[in-house]
Amino acid sequence: MDNSEMDLLADKIADRIRPPLVVNQNQISAMLGFSCIQGKVSQTVRNIINRPDFWAPFYLSDGKSKRWRYIDVQAWINGLYHEELKLRRIASIRRRAS
User: Fold this and answer.
1) pLDDT digit string (tens) for 50-90?
2) CA-CA distance, 56 to 23, in Å (whole number)?
3) Which of 70, 78, 85, 97 makes a 20 to 30 Å CA pair with 22?
4) Residue 3: how many CA atoms within 13 Å on its side-chain side?
């Protein structure tokens, strides 16, 4: 393999591991651990996306396609995860105290 082929391979690998800039509903569904059936997201994912504490989408130039910034969605998921951990710790402490 020559250098140009190695560079091409390195670029392809980087594209796979680099997070996207924006995500659509199907990608958010996957980030949340839900699957899409026939390309459609579940009602649970739609409810999450429509929560007031979830980041608002922006629309692409066609005016119909919604997208979210990947870093915003990831931050929301991380915050939710940390909040859930905190609640579990509190519940565990309360169980031990009673």
Assistant:
1) 999 999 999 988 888 999 999 999 999 988 877 777 777 77
2) 12
3) 85
4) 0
- Token duo for residue 19: 């997070």
DSSP notation for the chain: --HHHHHHHHHHHHHHHSPPSEE-HHHHHHHTTPPPBTTB--HHHHHHHTSTTSPPPEE-TTSS-EEEEHHHHHHHHHHHHHHHHHHHHHHHHHHHH-
Candidates 49, 78, 80; CA nearest to 66 is: 49
- Residue bearing tokens 């739609």: 46
Spatial distance between the Cα atoms of 29 and 38, rounded to a whole number of angstroms: 13
Full-model pTM: 0.66
Q: Residue 60 is encoded by which pair of tokens?
A: 């692409």
Residue listed under structure tokens 């929560």: 51
